[in-house]
Structures are given as C-alpha cells and as structure tokens.
Amino acid sequence: MMRRAPRSAALLDALMRPYRRRLYLPLLAAWVALALLIWQSALLADLFAGWLNAAAAGERLPSDGLYTVLPWLLVCLLLRPLLSLYKERRLQNLSLDVRHQLRRRLLDALADLGPARSRFGSDGALSTRVLEQVDALDGYISRFYVQRTVAVATPLVIAAAVFAHSKLAALLLLLTAPLVPLFMILVGSAAAGKSREQLDTLAQLGGRFLDLVRGMPTLRRLNAATQAEKQVASAAEAYQRRTMGVLRLAFLSGAVLELFASLAIALVAVYLGLGLIGVLPWAQGEVPVPYRSALFILLLAPEFYAPLRQLGTDYHAKAQAQAAAEAVQPLLDMAAESSRPSENGIQTASERFHESIPETENTRKSTHQDALKVAPSLRLEQLAIGGEGDRERLAAVSFAVAAGARIGIGGRSGVGKSSLLQALLGFCAYRGRIWLNGEDCAGFDRACLQRQTAYLAQTATLLPGTVADNLRLANAAAGAEEMRQALEAVGLWDLIQRLPDGLNTYLGERGQGLSGGQQQRLSLAQLLLHDAPLWLLDEPAAHLDEETAADLYRVLGQISRGKTVLLVSHDLAAVPWLDEVVMLEGAPDER
Fold first, then answer.
1. Where exactly are the transmembrane stretches of this chain (predicted)?
2. 396-448 per-position pLDDT tens digit
3. Which region holds residue 411: left if phi is over 0, alpha if psi is between -120 and 50, else beta?
4. 60, exposed or middle or buried, with CB in 10 Å at 0-12, 13-18, 19+?
5. For FRET with 425, which of 16, 52, 196, 554 sits at 20 to 30 Å CA-CA?
6. Cα–Cα distance between 420 and 402 in angstroms, integer?
C-alpha cells in the first residue's frame, strides 16, 4: 500500500501541473485575507486597550477611537468573507475543469482500448471509475491542494506577528503546532486505506449491479431474482460498513485535532493571564506582556491553529483522492503506453512503434481518405501481439486476403483470434506489418480507418432507445427508407413493422425486447447502414443456438458479398460460404 502512494501522489501532481497558474489568485486572496485578519486583531486590541486604560484611570470611555476604528473594522469584516468566497469559487471551478479533463482522458483511453477494456473490469466498474472515483478528487483539488500551502505559511506569518509582542508566546505556538499535522498523518494513513477499500467496494457494487440488471430477464426465467436481490443487498451493506468506517475516522481525527488546538490555545492563554496579574514564577510582580499585546495574541491564537485544523479535515480528502487515483491509474498508464499527445490528437502505440521504421514510399503518413471506398486487399507479415510480462497474446502469423474475399479465422481458445481483430482496428500495439491495398496500415489515419471498418462482436452493440435510434448509431443520416431496406435484407422488417410503434419501438438495456438472434440481426442491419468495405466479425453467433446461428450465418453470407470479411469462429464448418480458412497456431494464452 505504501509503495503505491508515490504513484498516486505523482498522478495528482501531474493533474494539477497545467493549472498551477490558476492557483495564484486564490492564494493571493488567502494572503490578503490573512493580512486583514492581523490588521483587524491589531485594531481591536488598540480599541479595547484604550478603553481598559480609561476605565482604570476612572475616565469616561472615549468614543472617538470607536468612530475612527469602526470603518476599518467593517472593511475587514466584510472583505474577509468575500475573499474567502472568491477563493472557494475559483477553486471549485478549477476542480470542475480538472475532473472534466480527466474524464475525457479516461474516455479516450477506453476508446483506444476498445474491446480490450474488459481487462480492466466490467462496464459497471469502469463507469464507476469514470464517474464516482473522478468526483472523489474534488476535495483534494478544491480544498487540500491550496490549504496545504496556507497551512504552512499562515502560522509562520502569525508567529512572526506574535514574536514582535512576546517571544515566549510565539515559541509556545510554534512548539505546539507540530502536534496537529503529526496526528493528521497518523490518522490520514489509516483513512487512506479505508478510502481505498470503500472505492473498491463501490466499483464491485456498480459492476455487480449492472450485470444483474442486464441479466434480469434470464434471472426471472430461472427464478433467481431473489438470490440476485440478496447479493445486491449484501454488497450494499459491505459498502455501508466501509463508508461508516471512513466517517468514524473523520470524526475521531476532527475531535482530537480540536482537542489539541484547544489545549495549545489554553496554554498560551494561561501564560498571558498569569503574566497580566504578575504571578509568573520567573517574573513575580512583573507584567511581561501588556494588555494590548496579550489581547492581540489571544485574538490571533485560534487563527494560528485554524489552517492546521482545516488541513487535518481536508487530509481525508487527500486520502480519498489518492485511493481514487490508484483506481484510475491503470487506465491512464495504458493510455500513456498506447498513445502520446500530438498536435492533432492521439497517436496509438502501433503508430509510435512504426515511427522507428525508416520512412519509405510505402510508410509515409497520410490520411488516405479514399483508401477504402471499395473492398480492400489485406496482407499480414509476421504480425505478433505481446501481452503483460512474457506472455504472448498472438504468435507471429502471416497470410494474405484478396480484395472481396471472405476469410475464416480459426484456432484453439486463447490463441489470439480476437486480438488479431483488435490489432486491425488499431486498439492494440503489434509487431510486424499490416498492409492494406499494398500500403502499410501504420501510415493510415486511425480514425479514418476505423470509420471505414465494420466490427461485429459476440453480443449486439445496442443502447436503450428506439429501433431507429440504434440503427442511426451506424449512420446518423439514415432515413426511414434506408432503414427499411437494411432490415429487409437481414430478415427483420416483418417483425419490426408488426411492433406497435414500428421503428420507434423502444428497446431496453442491450436490446431488451428482442431475442438474441433478433438482436444480432439488428446488428447486421447496422453493418449494412455503415456500408464499410472491410468487415471484422468476432464470433457473432457465439451465444446463439445452433438453428439460430445457422440462420444468422445464412443472412451474413447474403449481405457480405462484395466485402472483405474476416470472420472469427470456433465452428467454421457452419459457415459454408467462406473462401478460405486460416488456422492460428501458438500456445493458448489470455487474449
């Protein structure tokens, strides 16, 4: 746990580095407010010292001093809250901007990973990281980051002001001040561990809940909804316990910090009080600190510890932010490995790998906007994909695909069939070469290449919305007639027109309302509307029964004519229309 803390701290500092200039004004507001506080304390000490001296001399309390001091006191009393409000507003806006930028980086990382994002958890757990755990950084950015500077500088400035009136009082303040941050660190390390456990539990709860909601129709058919409800209740209870553990630590540390600060202030007050009545053991009958200075010191003493107490409270925000940073760190590390910032966007790891290759006629960068207007030819030369450590996701493979050919990709489970498709989509780094229409694929603009490539996974890519909304995911400009033709081609139009609202029929999560085979047919209609010349199909019938799978492959055979198709399947014998089959070899490994 302690070894990971520097990484999370480095990530937090890296997040704040581009925004440091925006911290100048909040810090300036804090310094001005501190100067106003010292001035206000001096004015009050002068005013009450004058009244005390007049009372001691039996004179009438002077009112001229009050009228002189009152306007300046009002200035201090009004300006300090306004400066505090300004500082908080600036820091809150900064927090919003930092979190927004971080979310964009995380979403870009997930987009770069594509199907490989499953290695980092379920969609529910990933959504929790992008939403909840990014929001957990708010307290660190809007409070702790600036407060740690204020907590160091403010006591030193106040101690310097006190030192001018009493060296011993300043020494007492400085000697007791370290007790607050010391306890803050002791409790904060425990709070960091509790926050980590809390965020891990929240991610697990989010992932489990999403999976159960998606599988609710199946759970109901199996009469297992009650067991699922108990699982969610158990996970929610575990999250509640961990949340209460964090709150207990927060209240405990707050109480102890207040106790230490109160004892320290009381110690200074006792010294000043005994000095005013002349009973200090080392200064019998003397007044080492006059009333005016004693009052000035007592007014500043609570403010001496206030930033330290606030930092102790905000330290929990730092602990929570470190836990959240550790949760999102793997995604950001993957984004850093697979891409680098460029003037126009993001460059993938495969593109960066090929930058080390000398530029030739076939490797010059270009957008190739018109490269895939027709079905392309494809050639792989010693294409290999590495995994974590010494593992190999795909052993070196070479084969060629003619333009318009439909090729089956087979091999044992884990040999790297899906990884090969991910490399073609630009979602993972690789060794070797991929040639598209005789040109190195590394020279293509990745976004352009992806727009002209159609991908179909084992499960349909459908979102909650109408049938028309889901079809427009493939082609936003598609009209009703184009949708009808696509649905007719995949044999789904008769069903859709019998639905109460036709194309405007609402589908639930992951196409709920349609059967598995109908969902995959709707995905085939998306392929047709996309009208891409290169199709990459990753076991589209994996979760279908034999009869439905055969029917799906029959439709695929009809609509894929004229396309270059790479079809991954464990049962290529069920696909008679393939032109060729390529069997991948190599030791099975995790994809």
1. 66-86, 145-164, 170-192, 249-277
2. 888 898 988 998 988 888 788 888 888 888 877 788 888 888 888 877 777 77
3. left
4. exposed
5. 554
6. 17
Amino acid at 574: A
pLDDT bucket at 317, cuts 50 / 70 / 90: confident
Residue 517 lies in a domain: yes
Are both 318 and 407 inside the same structural domain?
Answer: no
Residues 331 and 409 grouped into a single domain: no
Residue 137 is classified by DSSP as T
Q: Which domain holds residue 29?
A: 18-336
Residues 263 and 357 in one domain: no
pTM flag (> 0.85): no
* pLDDT exceeds 90 at position 355: no
Give how many domains the chain has, as a whole number.
2
Nearest to 83 by CA among 27, 154, 33, 31: 33
Within this chain, do residues 102 and 227 fall inside the same structural domain, yes or no? yes
Burial class (CB in 10 A: 0-12, 13-18, 19+), 112: buried
Rounded Cα distance, 141 and 98, in Å: 8
Beta-carbon contacts of 446 under 8 Å, excluding residues fewer than 6 positions away, are 348, 351, 426
Indicate if 125 and 272 belong to the same structural domain. Answer: yes
Convert 211-247 to b/e letters by CB count within 10 Å (16 or more is b): ebbbebeebeeeeeeeebeeeeeebeebbeebbebbe
Query: Is 118:282 a contact under the CB 8 Å cutoff?
Result: no
**Is residue 371 located within the same domain as residue 495?**
yes
